Amino acid sequence: MAAGSHLTLHYRISLADGGGDVINTFGDRPATVQLGLGQMAEPLERCLLGLAEGAHQVIELSPEQAFGERNPELVQKLSRAVFDANVDADADGAYQPGDVVDFPAPDGGRYAGVLKELTERYALFDFNHPLAGRRIRFEVQILGIL
User: Fold this and answer.
1) Range of 30's domain?
2) Cα angle 70, 74, 78; round to 5
């Protein structure tokens, strides 16, 4: 299989330290993705390259191989005014620590951060990937390749 391939697959992402499943399609409907379009995280797509139909593999990935180490510079305070100006006004008052909040990026795209703390003066966000700094286990079974 190569970039651009369409795949039907089952996959499971879990924490290698036994922390449980993050996502699991085994026992449910399989996923269908096209490699190279960002439908699956790039480190996971790299693990799929070269696999054949019917392959079933379990791969452990270090933080460096998966979602990187945690970067303390990606934990940032935003003023409450900036927070209020950039979030969904309909959700006013509904944001709680642990919520993933979507923000507009300067290039017109979107990015997300996990709200850690919200006060009258500021909002503290962690913009690291939620799996940054964690060893993960990626199990995959390729059901079909187009």
Assistant:
1) 6-68+132-145
2) 150
